[in-house]
Amino acid sequence: MAQIMHILQTQGGDILHAIGQHIGLSLISLLIAALIAIPLAIVLMHHERWAKVMLQITSVLQTIPSLALLGILIPIVGIGTVPSIIALVIYAVMPIFQNTYSGLTTIDPNLEEAATAFGLSRRMKLFRIELPLALPMIISGIRIATVMIIGTATLAALIGAGGLGTYILLGIETNNNALLIIGAVLSAALALIFGAGIDWLGKLSFKKAGIVLLTLVVLIGGFAGYRKLANPQTQITIAGKMGSEPEILINMYKDLIEHDHPNMQVATKANFGGTSFLFKALKSGSIDIYPEFTGTVLESLIKGDKLASHNPAKTYQVAKNGLKSQYQMAYLKPMSYQNGYDLAVTKQFAKKYNLKTVSDLVAVEGKIHAGFDPDFYQLKDGYPGLRKAYGLNFASAKTMEPSIRYKAIANGKVNLVDGYTTDPEIREYHLVVLKDNKHFFPPYQGAPLMTEKLLTAHPELRTTLNKLAGKVSTTDMQQMNYKVTVKHEKAATVARDYLRSHGLLD
Amino acid sequence: MIEFKNVTKRYAKNQALDDLNLTIPTGDFFVLVGPSGSGKTTTLKMLNRLIEPTGGDIYFNDKRIIDYDIKQLRQQMGYVLQNIALFPNLNIQENIAIQAESLGWPRKERIERARALLKQVDLDPDKYATRMPSELSGGEQQRVGIIRALAIKPKVVLMDEPFSALDPISRKQLQDLVLQLHQELNMTFVFVTHDMHEALRLGQHIAVMRLGHIQQIGTGEAIMQHPANDFVRGFFENEHTPRPATIQDLVIKGYGQTTTAPATLKSTATVSELAAALQTAATVVVATDQGARQLTTADVIDYLATKEAD
């Protein structure tokens, strides 16, 4: 709870911004869906067969999982707001269409007969009789669509459209329950508030409801237009993966670029998505730069025979050449820190048995009860390989979720865990990382990745970003991650402080 | 003047109207009467083209109704439905003025007309004009249904069994009302009913229909005195010899006090038998489905007095 309050206090502005994005995204989608579904239902109300066909189509669209739909849309319309809105509209059309159609077609036939017998025009019949009578059904359709849209809009964060989903994803990714709760509770609250607002709208007369809706449209339109005018096109977009570390890095890039080249404007997109998503975004030109790990490049991005080297410099070379030849991408020089696998024990445990390196574990292997991440437990680069390389035979080794294993070692349930070298928990729980003295773990070094096209157009970026080459030690990174994740300082501030204190920025 | 010439209406499986010939003089109160399935409602709805004939022609003022613009035709005809069908989303004055609105009358005129009509049928405009239909009783609603049909001063008013869903007292009041309106307004009324009693009460001319054929057309008196065939005669006899009222009928209307005293009569006994029993005793106890009831002479007199009003 205290953590939630702290986050709300320190990141209140960002959260408000996310709420704004979420509402904007939802309302625009809702509006477009209503503008499609209601006229369509009106047109089809006297064509039962076509209406049935339409209902089938919208129902089928509804069954496509939202993630799959986003995946289908990315190659067609790219990432960001547009595909999110398209996906949300596709989901929202069905409840609105279905309710409007059944609202219009279940009107008491006697009333229809009366209106016909009085010689009312089709138009007057529709606006004076049929639509007002169907209004409660239409409103409930819109209500269903709204609640659905606000829920589904959390997925928009996956493809860089922002919104409250950012906090949910970030919360899952960094195992920060406070963030998760903030994102989930706020989006649930939004759904409730909008549901109630729509109910209220339904109680107004036809005319008043129209006025309210129109006002809303003008407000959203005006706001969007204003934002467009107030934010001129930026030249460079830098994105980062989920978590604090990439966010710190992209803020460093931004500060360096803007400092060196006042004519350039940099937009940052933190917590933009996973590896393959960012890589696709880079290829499609949606983003210009993002920081990537050398190990990850070898592991999942470039194809072909990859020499599993444990030498960082060699790994970087292989990654760089592969990216250049296979994707025409430029991979600048890596920073000093390595964010690879490690093994960690508590300080007391290390002291008691005088543990400094992984090899030291052999002497106490009978006393070791390990908690490992499921991936680490299975991967060749993880526990199985490690066991062979060092000849280890632990008393027990269990798999557990990444966050739980840190809590388990803190509570004394296990006495050895795997982790990433820059995890802030190492500092938080006072752990000691054992030196990989046989260089078994593949090196993971972060470096800026961009298209060659961008670098050719702006060769000055190389000099600027290479200022970070060989900088930022593992301890530095651990400390910065700790500040952002545990102390909830702003990534931008932490990044700038680092650059200033190391003389990279005045 | 309205004329049906050799009009037929055939549905996939049955013949609703067969070679119908009919003349309705201008300004008449014309009643179509017959049992269900006789084609009376079909005949009525052909006038405002809710139903189109499959053969023959219908003339309205010497012009075929299919040669009229359908909207203009309908705007010369008021229409009252069996189940009233007031638009639940519109208030009373908006309902009354809906046809006027579609003709583009200015708002002020529409409201004035609606209020005048409400006054004409004894509904206080200040009280009723802005109420919603659901706030009115059935009888009040059908009053509004009738004046809605009159709002734009149509030449013809079509009424499709308008009173069949009402209780007997409201029905009688509304029958009086339409008779009075017909006298005042100089319009042609075409009225459909299955109730011969109602037909006799209202119609200047009556057409008795059965299975898509007209059996007889004439004034009520002429038909009563010289029925054209057995069907017409039978239809009238049913009206003349109603089922004798039983004690159960009284009890259903709420007469009688609950009692625990032993019963001397069954509820299937007629009212006459009850009257006979009351000649010798001040109260009579009757066994009914709802338990024993104690009835008095006053109950019988009350019952008979209100029954006559039906």
Automatic annotation (TrEMBL), chain A:
The chain crosses the membrane at residues 25-47, 67-93, 133-159, 179-202, 209-226. It is found in: Cell membrane; Membrane. PROSITE patterns: ABC_TM1. It is a multi-pass membrane protein. Residues 19-198 form the ABC transmembrane type-1 domain. Pfam families: BPD_transp_1, OpuAC. Keywords: Membrane, Transmembrane, Transmembrane helix, Transport. Its main location: membrane. In the C-terminal section; belongs to the OsmX family. PANTHER family: GLYCINE BETAINE/L-PROLINE TRANSPORT SYSTEM PERMEASE PROTEIN PROW, OSMOPROTECTANT IMPORT PERMEASE PROTEIN OSMW. This is ABC transporter permease/substrate-binding protein. It comes from Levilactobacillus lanxiensis.
TrEMBL record, chain B:
One of its GO terms (molecular function) is ATP binding. Keywords: ATP-binding, Nucleotide-binding, Transport. InterPro entries: AAA+_ATPase, ABC_transporter-like_ATP-bd, ABC_transporter-like_CS, P-loop_NTPase. Residues 2-236 form the ABC transporter domain. It comes from the Bacteria. Belongs to the ABC transporter superfamily. This is ABC transporter ATP-binding protein. The lineage of its organism: Bacteria, Bacillati, Bacillota, Bacilli, Lactobacillales.
